[in-house]
């Protein structure tokens, strides 16, 4: 068992990001058993849950004529337009049924403001609105983070980069994460994590 100052953060292990879901990540369900096993090593565990209102501006459907996976500009910068996914209270927003959420102490919901997307567990896509997770971790004297989940090149990578910028020691379990890979995003975000000093394992 690891010290309580080392936390596991499982990112968005939700039905909509698994095969059959609205924004399915290839092989997203394959990581579930390994994450359940990994969680038995940790005393401090946080989960994130993508949690959008139906009118969320990250949905292509809420932009007349916009194609899914195209890019638009938001006041805070470029934003990919996604299929409708993880709508609050829908089955697809639920955690994968094989994922044992019982050991987690906190479930952090993100992406609930209609006009701001939130990839990172720490800051929304405007890069200034905090989610509160940093304070939760600091209050527990957490200094080391292990991240796994979906998707490697979006929510996992943004969380890892922010965590490094906040001074945490960060490991990403690539073997227990899966990527969307939009226009080479898996390679570019993996390189950004490596350059930022994120330990990439698996
Ligand atoms: C995610 C796209 C949109 C993720 C969430 O969890 O990586 N990606 N919303
Ligand atoms: Zn989302």
From TrEMBL:
<dbReference type="GO" id="GO:0019363">
    <property type="term" value="P:pyridine nucleotide biosynthetic process"/>
</dbReference>
<dbReference type="InterPro" id="IPR036380">
    <property type="entry name" value="Isochorismatase-like_sf"/>
</dbReference>
<keyword id="KW-0662">Pyridine nucleotide biosynthesis</keyword>
<dbReference type="InterPro" id="IPR000868">
    <property type="entry name" value="Isochorismatase-like_dom"/>
</dbReference>
<comment type="pathway">
    <text>Cofactor biosynthesis; nicotinate biosynthesis; nicotinate from nicotinamide: step 1/1.</text>
</comment>
<dbReference type="GO" id="GO:0046872">
    <property type="term" value="F:metal ion binding"/>
</dbReference>
<keyword id="KW-0479">Metal-binding</keyword>
<comment type="similarity">
    <text>Belongs to the isochorismatase family.</text>
</comment>
<dbReference type="InterPro" id="IPR052347">
    <property type="entry name" value="Isochorismatase_Nicotinamidase"/>
</dbReference>
<keyword id="KW-0378">Hydrolase</keyword>
<dbReference type="Pfam" id="PF00857">
    <property type="entry name" value="Isochorismatase"/>
</dbReference>
<feature type="domain" description="Isochorismatase-like">
    <location>
        <begin position="7"/>
        <end position="184"/>
    </location>
</feature>
<protein>
    <recommendedName>
        <fullName>Nicotinamidase</fullName>
        <ecNumber>3.5.1.19</ecNumber>
    </recommendedName>
</protein>
<dbReference type="GO" id="GO:0008936">
    <property type="term" value="F:nicotinamidase activity"/>
</dbReference>
